[in-house]
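Entry 14. Structure prediction run on the chain below.
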Amino acid sequence: MCRIPRCQYLFLLCVEGLSLSLKSASENGSISGCRINRSAPAITHLLFADDSFLFFKATTLETKAIQEILSSYKRFSGQAVNFQKSAIFFNANVHRDKQMEIKQTLGVFNDIGNSKYLGLPSLIGRSKKTVFRYLKDRVFLKIQSWSSKLLSRAGKAIMIRNVAQMIPTYTMSCFMVPKTLCQEIERLMNAFWWKSNVSTGKGIRWCAWDKISMSKKSGGLGIKKPPKLFLSASRNPTSN
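Output returned:
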């Protein structure tokens, strides 16, 4: 039987009070939250462990309402918000003067920007290939470090299956990654398989990569192609 420490129970009770305060403010119209479409319910907050995401309109009234809720939460629970570690994000339609006013009211001056949360990009813009470029860079650096070593074909197959293909798995379990980026990662693995120096990309391809990517039962090496390994792992319908 799993036992939860009493301090964690107290933390959950305090956070439940914060959640009810935000819900009450949404019901009486103090804050409006965020909607993904007109018919969807408004989302005022998301809670994960000790992190909280608050959603409200960039107006003076709603900003003061959020400030009052956080102040009340601090008085009753004794837990204060760490504004130095907090960050804020504005819609592109919010004027810069209004942004500065809200930042000064809340005391939060850090922008989310291109930061990461739990190892994943915080914001996904129109150019997904630029956002997820770091996946290809990490695979490339790994393969470059292996190129100086004398690896057999079996060793290369193990490195590709157990290391290179596992690097993007965590990210691609949450987001849909562009197919072109998956193909570029596949080319890196292909070049590494046929030649140790992947920077030149040369080497005789004695066999088509489609045959190598087949299952072992079918005569291949079990190196899955990106459309099967990566794209099928992206099951989050909200990340399209």
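Residues 124-239 form one domain.
Filed with the rest of this week's runs.
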